[in-house]
Design goal:
Length: about 280
């Protein structure tokens, strides 16, 4: 696929996906959604990609849904069941299933889906120019992109409700204080800081281990007892413990040298992966 609404760049095992509609403040539309899905599929299949960074072109991250169609923007045609799958939710569910660590480098305003899509990313970092807004109550709709699941897990139910009830815009400092973002950086320092963090995930770590960790952590957020974590921990240690990566990890430690892991996410995941029930919109 040739990309127009995003830019896809891989350097030093780090993929940067740049939302690329700067003339529209990177407003989210069907084309951008389709291209991001394709980019994530491509990244998952590429063992050279060990981490992903999302950012925006120009002065914004994403201004939310493209409202150029006017007041009928959210007036979807029914699919015959009286509903229409929310495009933001389709995206965040895809992010939820991604095999690679995902970092948000929010360089400017991020409202609506521009904010909610970041809830499904593993680490959120912000420029001091970043602004966030869960503005749905001010548009006469409800939060989308599965944010009623993700956002309370990011910041707690009190903050999630305050932001969603009011629909107000808040700055990067408030996002940091409420633990929505990991860190705030000067504008020119944001991407270098995001890349430094991505390299920590990509260098001298087992790609198979990182993928397993990502899904064990996210999937256990919905578990009703720690025994569910014990079950998957036990299976994970049993199967990965037999791998070449595990042998290399221990041997490199004993020999006091950098590890050289050979395991590939495309071919060497444990036989029980993915273990969770696949869910579809019904």
């Amino acid at each position: 696929m040739d990309y127009e609404a995003i830019i896809y760049e891989v350097e030093d095992n780090i993929l940067t996906i740049t939302l690329n509609r700067p003339e529209r403040m990177n407003a989210f539309n069907d084309q951008m959604s389709s291209e991001i899905h394709n980019a994530l599929d491509r990244a998952d299949a590429d063992d050279n990609v060990k981490a992903i960074i999302f950012t925006g072109a120009g002065r914004g991250f994403c201004a939310g849904a493209d409202l150029s169609s006017g007041s009928e923007t959210f007036d979807y045609e029914s699919d015959g069941r009286g509903i229409h799958p929310d495009g933001g939710g389709v995206l965040t569910l895809r992010l939820f299933e991604c095999l690679k660590p995902v970092i948000s480098a929010c360089n400017g305003p991020a409202v609506g889906v521009g904010a909610t899509m970041q809830c499904a990313m593993d680490i959120r970092m912000a420029s001091d120019k970043a602004r966030y807004g869960f503005v749905f109550s001010k548009r006469g709709i409800v939060p989308e992109a599965c944010s009623s699941w993700f956002l309370p897990r990011c910041v707690g139910i009190n903050t999630a409700l305050e932001w969603a009830y009011s629909g107000r815009i808040f700055d990067a400092q408030e996002a940091l204080e409420k633990r929505f973002v990991r860190s705030v950086h000067k504008e020119n320092d944001l991407m270098p800081a995001a890349r430094d963090l991505a390299h920590e995930f990509a260098e001298q770590t087992s790609s198979v281990s990182v993928t397993m960790i990502r899904h064990m952590m996210w999937k256990m957020l919905g578990a009703d007892h720690p025994m569910e974590a014990h079950k998957i921990d036990s299976r994970g240690v049993y199967f990965t413990g037999k791998s070449e990566d595990a042998h290399e990890g221990v041997q490199s430690f004993l020999e006091k040298r950098p590890a050289e892991f050979s395991g590939k996410v495309s071919t060497d995941m444990p036989e029980f992966f993915p273990w969770w029930e696949q869910r579809k919109f019904e």
